[in-house]
Amino acid sequence: MTEKLLDIENLTVTFPTRSGDFDAVRGISFSLGRERLGIVGESGSGKSMTGRAILGLIRRPGRVTADRLMLHGKDILKMSEREMQQVRGQRISMVMQDPKFSLNPVVRVGEQIMEIYRFHTNASRRAAWAKAVEMLDAVQIRDPERVMRAFPHEMSGGMGQRIMIAMMLVTEPEILIADEPTSALDVTVQTSVLAILDRLVEARGMGLIFISHDLNLVSSFCDRVLIMYAGRIVETCDADKLHDAKHPYTRGLLNSLPRIDKPARRLEALNRDPAWSEAKSVSGHL
Fold first, then answer.
1. Which pTM value belongs to this model?
2. Dihedral sign of CA atoms 85, 89, 91, 92 in order
3. Which of 105, 119, 185, 246 could lock onto 189 through a cystine, CB 3.0 to 4.6 A?
4. How many CA atoms lie within 13 A of 199 on its CB side?
5. Whole-angstrom Cα distance, residue 163 to residue 158?
6. How confident is the model at residue 194 (pLDDT cuts 50, 70, 90)?
7. Tell me, what's the pLDDT at 270?
C-alpha cells in the first residue's frame, strides 16, 4: 500500500447565508499517497474549496470541520496559524487557478521566488538566488538568470505557469495541490507543463492533487480520480478506468464530451438527479 501523506475523513466546509448554512464541501473522505490524485467535477462542485480547506485558507465566517484531517499523523485542524505558516509552502504547496495572476506585478520574478525560500529556510540571499535559478531551470525556462530579473507582465501565459510551479516547488514540499494550472493554456504548452509536473513528482516522490474539469486530461495524467458533485464524492476509480465509470453523473460528464473517433450531431445534455447530492460520499481512501 502506498504511504499515506494525507488522510481525510468527513471533511465539511460551511458558509453562513441569509437562508441558512451552505455546505460547499459535504463530508468527503479520501487519502493521498505518493501519487497523482485527480479531483474532477463541474464548477461549484467543491474541488477548489477542498484544496483551500487542506491548507487552512478558509477564513471566517467560513467553517471547516472533519473527523480527521491528518498530515503525516498530525491533525491540521489543531495547528495554530504559526504552525500552518510552516506547513504552507514548506510541506504543502498550492498552485492556484490562473497562476500567473497570483504573481505580484510590481516585484521582479526572482525576488518573489527568493522570498518564499528564505522565509522557510532562513537561507542567505546568495543561496536563495542560486536555488531560485535552479528551480526555474528545472521547469525548463530558458535563460533563468534573465527571467529572475524580469517582471511578471513580461512573461507569456505558459512562462507564468512555469514560474508559479517553480515558486511552489522551491521549498521541496511533500504535497502539491494544482488547481486547474493549465486551464488557460493552449494544448502544446499544456502538454509541456504537465510533463514538467509529472517529472518533478516522480523525481521527488511527491503527492499531487490535480484539480480539473477536464476528464480526458485527468484520465491520461493521474493515477486515481475522485469525481465530485454538489460538494460530495460520488465516485472514485483508477484514472485509466475513468471511461468505464458507472455513476450516472460521471457517465453524463463523459457522454457530454466531443469525440473525434465518434462524431455526433449533438452532444448529450447532462440530466441531474437530486438524489446525487443527497447520497453519502464515496470514500477515496487508498
1. 0.90
2. positive
3. 185
4. 11
5. 9
6. confident
7. 83
